[in-house]
Structure formats: structure tokens, C-alpha cells
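pinned: reference chain
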Amino acid sequence: MATFKPIVIFVLGGPGAGKGTQCANIVKEFGYVHLSAGDLLREARASGSPDGQLIESYIKEGKIVPVEITIALLRKAMENSGKDKFLIDGFPRNKDNLEGWEREMGDKSIVKFVLFFDCPEETCMERALKRGASSGRTDDNIESFRKRYQTYLTNTVGIIDYYKAKGLVRTISSIPGPEQVFNEVKKLFNDS
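pinned: its C-alpha cells
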């Protein structure tokens, strides 16, 4: 990664806001590589890696995994992709994540903007519980959702505010259906 600076768009929003769905659409339409911090952590947890058990305990409790682990997984995925445009979904989620990113990747990447999917708690909860009925994700249940949503309010909203102050947040309501939301996303990507 020393020879080029990948372009990064952070994708943030509450659990169940539609980040993964919209990222899949952006990948198809605009050629970005989608890196879900949560998916990378779940894969590492399932791989039997030394960090797997630690990751499991954090995910199950709805807590944020230590930044060093998450950034190492993101950096490895970026390097292995051979690409230079990335959607990083669900990261940075707190001040520690942000500081870790700035420390480890700040001069090695270009943050183009933060794509923020704004969605009320009730809608997020309905979507997460519906997804949990078929996904097998251990964190798509009512108890974990409440913890994850509280973590989002307590930690991630401050990250959105930080980037908003830098003029780097692009907000899209994710209340409408996925097609209508993606129409707004397309306008944003075509204009940037």
C-alpha cells in the first residue's frame, strides 16, 4: 500500500439501516470493493484465529472490537483485493477507531467522504430482527440489537459529527425501500 493511496468511503448508520444492501448496489454500479468491518471480524472469529475468541465475546456483547484488530483485518483485505476504491462499512464506530485509523491509515489512504444512512431505531430494529430470522448472525436478536443501537448512539454518532464538521458527510435517509434509497445513492456517486 506504500505505492498508492486507496480511496475510502466510510459507510455508517445504525444496525439494520441498510448499509450492506446499499454497499452491494454500489459495488455493482460503481466498482468499489465492499469491506464490512463486521463481516471481516465474523470471518476472523470463525477462522479459529488467536483473536477469534476475543472477537466473539465483543460481538456477542454488542461492544466494539479493539481497533488494532479491526484495522489489521481491513488493511489486509485492502492489500489482498488489488483494487484502489473501497467502501468500509461499519467503521470507524467510535473515537478509538477514528484515532486508530488516523494513526495507522491516515497518511496511507484518502477518505473521500462518509456515507451516512439515517434511519430511526424502530425501523433499524425491524430490519435487524427480520435479517436475524434467516442470517444465522448471533447479533441479530433483540438483546444484542439494543446493545448495538446504544453503542451506535453513544459512540458512532460522534464520529459522524466529527466528519460533518470537516464537510465530509453525505446523508441519505434509508427509510424508503432499497430501490428508492439507491436512486439517491446513485445521484450522490454520479455527482462526486
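why pinned: The chain is about 55% helix and 15% strand. Residues 47 and 163 are 34 Å apart (CA to CA).
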